[in-house]
Structure formats: structure tokens, C-alpha cells
Automatic annotation (TrEMBL):
Family annotation (SUPFAM superfamilies): Porins (SSF56935)
Signal peptide from the UniProt entry: 1-20
Protein keywords: Signal
UniProt-listed Pfam families: Porin_O_P (PF07396)
Keyword Transmembrane helix: no
Native species: Parabacteroides faecalis
Hydrolase among keywords: no
Domain of life: Bacteria
Cited Gene3D superfamilies: Porin
Protein known as: OprO/OprP family phosphate-selective porin
């Protein structure tokens, strides 16, 4: 009987304790004010927030050397984006993608699913400070524009990190001109797949990248646009990387045309396009050093009708070695030609929904130096019939 009474007593005390904890938790939440409420003034403007989902899917048919490789339905991109402002001077921008793999072992200790996670502060009418994961401030229209609008990127843009964690300051020289200085991590993952032997193989203790970006818009309601940038940083100790990137855009009436030039000089091959050619040393391959990449992108869009658009794009890229190292002799190792044609249909006035038919052909040529280490020419072709929708939730 005593055991039963003791058991009942402990049980009752436990229930009362849990109930009290639950009440305390609820009460604390009810009394706690949000950050906005704590700082709010009577004349402060309301907090703004915008949520959207960016969705792109397609039936993709791929060919290699004009022979069918595979045909499949793909979810090309699925992203969630939240952005807004508060107190007039502050902004925030978060974006999560569902297409990238999860890698918790990163420099910034943030899942690679997170593309953007930053806050901005308009210190003055002309100067804005932004901190967190943000765009790597390179130039070029294709790099600058929202990536969900690009059907197929150049190899240069595909293998260059688009989002890095750091801090940037933007000064608005004039209403349509801005200058941005950015300092950020020079890579995302902590274990880069770089193997250059014992010499100079250690990672830098301060793996930072600096970038200077200028955006200018001129003539007839900003029809002529420029996106120019220079960047430099360390890949390994005593091994640096440099970028010069330019975007020149004409956007007026039914025409959108741009010419991008992208150049990188890398003392260690960070993109891996030259390094991936060699197949002779499969057991102990070394990353190529002293490489450079040059890319030209020319695009012409023409709006046939408010609901119809078409564009043609041409890409030419080279990858070369500018100083002898290991099995890599000075010279050109890779040349790529890419031609794209796309027709787009917009059923809605808002242009949020788009149906597209996209063709692309790519030819990859390996000159004699590349063939000596295992390179073989090939071509790829692709047809995509798809739909893109940016869903404005809030």
C-alpha cells in the first residue's frame, strides 16, 4: 500500500512539474516582444517581408556526339527566397536551394543549401554595408542576373563560386552608378580537392578574396549598362588567383543584348577543367598549376510580342597553362564552343510564369598538348522543354 502511495505521489509531482514548466514556457512567450516591437517608434514604418518560391522543371533530352544519351524529367531548380526591409535603413535577404548537395564541412559553417543569408544597413543615403553570405561581386551580365533565368551557363560561371560569406560596402557615386568593395572567404568547402604535392600544399590561414565591382547605367533610361569587376585572393599559401570580368549590356524596347568577357589567372587550378583532362596518372593525379581561363559570351534577346521572346547565345572558352609544371607544358589545353537558341512564352502579364523550348550544342576540342595526356574531343547536344514559375507567396 505504501509503495502504491509513493508511486502515486511521485507521479503527481512529475505531472505538476511538467504542467508548471509548460505554463512558464507559454507565459514567457506571451510576454516576450519581438525585436521590431522592442525598437519600434510611433513614426517607424512597418516591417516588410516578401516570400517566393522559384521553380523550374523540364523534359531534358541529352545527346553525346549526336547519339542519344538519355531523356528524363528534371527539376532544374527549386529555391525559397525571403527578403525585405525594416526601419527604412535595414534589409535582409535569405535564399535556400533544394538542388545542391548538403555539406556541413564548410569554411563558414553553413550548409551549402543556403545560397544567401545576409543583412544590409544603409548607413547613409549613398553608402550600404552588407554582411553575411552574399553574391561574389564579379562582373558580367550572365553572372549578375538571377540564375534561374539562365538555361545553361558557361563553364566559367558553372565552376566559379557564386556565393561567399563576408562583408561588402557599396557606395552610390550617382543615382545609376555604384562602387562595391567586398572581402569574403575565397572558397566554400574546407577540404578543397587540390593536390599539388608537398610543395605549397598547405591552406592559407587567412583564406580571403577581395573584389572591387563597378556598375554603371547610362543613356536613355539606363539602356546602356556596364558590370565590371576585379578580384584577387589566395588558394594555397603562395598560390594566388586573380579575376577580371566585364559585362556590357544594351537593354531598350524589345532588345536585350550583352557581351561578357571573363578572365581568371590561377596559380592552382581551382576550377579543375584543365586538371580533369589528364588520364595517364590515374592513381596519383596532381592538380594543374599556373592556368588561365578566358570566356566570351554574346547574347541577343528579341521580344517578338508581349508574350513571346526568343534569344540566341554564343560562348567561346579557352583553358591554358602559362608556366610549365608537372606534366603540363605551357600552351592551350581546352577550347569550347557553345551555341544556344531558346523560345519563351509568357502566359501571364506579370512574367512570373514562363514556358520555354531550349536547344544547345557544345563542342569541346583538346589541342595536341591535351591529347598527349589523354584528352579526346567530344560534343554534347541538349533539348529542354520546360516551365519556370516564380511563385509570389507573400
Amino acid at each position: 500500500m505504501k509503495r502504491k502511495l509513493l508511486s502515486f505521489l511521485f507521479f503527481s509531482l512529475g505531472v505538476c512539474s511538467l504542467w508548471a514548466q509548460d505554463l512558464a514556457l507559454v507565459d514567457s512567450l506571451e510576454q516576450q516582444k519581438s525585436l521590431y516591437e522592442q525598437l519600434k517608434k510611433d513614426d517607424a514604418r512597418s516591417f516588410t517581408s516578401h516570400l517566393n518560391f522559384q521553380f523550374c522543371t523540364s523534359l531534358t533530352t541529352s545527346f553525346q556526339d549526336f547519339a542519344l544519351d538519355q531523356a528524363r524529367f528534371k527539376l532544374n531548380r527549386l529555391r525559397m527566397e525571403v527578403l525585405g526591409r525594416f526601419f527604412d535603413k535595414f534589409s535582409y535577404h535569405f535564399r535556400y536551394t533544394y538542388n545542391k548537395y548538403t555539406n556541413p564541412n564548410t569554411v563558414d559553417e553553413l550548409s551549402t543549401h543556403v545560397e544567401l543569408a545576409n543583412m544590409g544597413w544603409d548607413i547613409t543615403d549613398r553608402f550600404t554595408l552588407t554582411a553575411g553570405k552574399q553574391f561574389f561581386m564579379l562582373g558580367g551580365y550572365e553572372y549578375y542576373v538571377n540564375s534561374i533565368l539562365v538555361r545553361e551557363f558557361s563553364d566559367f560561371n558553372n565552376y566559379t563560386p557564386a556565393y561567399l560569406t563576408g562583408v561588402s560596402g557599396t557606395y552610390h557615386l550617382k543615382p545609376h552608378q555604384s562602387l562595391t568593395l567586398e572581402v569574403a572567404n575565397n572558397r566554400v568547402e574546407t577540404e578543397a580537392e587540390i593536390h599539388v604535392g608537398e610543395e605549397a600544399s598547405s591552406m592559407p590561414k587567412v583564406p580571403l578574396m577581395g573584389a572591387l565591382n563597378w556598375v554603371g547605367k547610362f543613356y536613355d533610361d539606363q539602356a546602356l549598362q556596364f558590370y565590371y569587376s576585379a578580384a584577387a585572393g589566395q588558394i594555397l599559401r603562395n598560390r594566388n588567383i586573380y579575376y577580371l570580368t566585364f559585362g556590357n549590356v544594351w537593354e531598350r524596347g524589345p532588345i536585350l543584348a550583352y557581351l561578357d568577357c571573363l578572365y581568371s589567372r590561377e596559380e592552382v587550378d581551382s576550377k579543375g577543367l584543365v586538371s580533369s583532362i589528364q588520364t595517364l596518372e590515374k592513381e596519383s593525379p596532381l592538380t594543374a598549376q599556373y592556368v588561365q581561363y578566358l570566356t566570351w559570351i554574346a547574347n541577343f534577346d528579341y521580344r517578338l510580342h508581349p508574350k513571346w521572346n526568343m534569344y540566341v547565345k554564343g560562348v567561346y572558352e579557352t583553358g591554358s597553362v602559362y608556366k610549365d609544371n608537372w606534366i603540363y607544358k605551357k600552351g592551350t589545353y581546352r577550347q569550347t564552343w557553345n551555341t544556344q537558341f531558346c523560345v519563351e512564352y509568357y502566359p501571364l502579364k506579370r512574367k512570373d510564369l514562363q514556358v520555354f523550348l531550349h536547344f544547345s550544342m557544345q563542342k569541346i576540342h583538346f589541342p595536341e598538348l591535351a591529347r598527349q595526356i589523354g584528352g579526346k574531343d567530344f560534343s554534347t547536344q541538349q533539348i529542354m522543354l520546360g516551365m519556370l514559375y516564380t511563385i509570389p507567396v507573400i
